[in-house]
Design a protein that fits this description.
5 helices; about 75% helix; elongated
Length: about 120
């Protein structure tokens, strides 16, 4: 079990990551194209993996596939990478799938805030 000090540090880090993701969301097509969104989502995945595992940095079991905020952030980081490649291929910032990415990102961030604020 994680002590209160360690949990506080993890939650503070999670809030910082969520603020970074929110800031990047405002400039979304450009931050996806530069790869900044992908990096922030991967960082969020790592932070929430620690929170959901109880702070233990080692291996932990996931009850069912694709459950948890950390898995959602990881999948969104991969989707961001796919969108970035598509943008580079077409030489456009607005590509197919961008709206769906934003919808999933907004729901994941809302779930993450409810986990941190609880």
């Amino acid at each position: 079990m994680v002590g209160l000090g360690r949990r506080w540090v993890l939650y503070k880090e999670a809030k910082r990551v969520l603020e970074d993701i929110g800031e990047l969301r405002l400039h979304s097509p450009k931050t996806i194209y530069t790869g900044d969104m992908e990096e922030a989502l991967e960082e969020g995945s790592e932070v929430f993996r620690l929170i959901e595992s109880g702070g233990n940095p080692g291996w932990y079991a996931v009850r069912r596939p694709y459950s948890g905020v950390n898995v959602e952030f990881y999948l969104l980081s991969r989707m961001s990478a796919a969108l970035r490649l598509r943008m580079m291929e077409l030489n456009k910032l607005y590509v197919t799938g961008l709206d769906y990415f934003h919808k999933r990102l907004d729901s994941a961030v809302a779930r993450a805030y409810s986990l941190v604020e609880a």
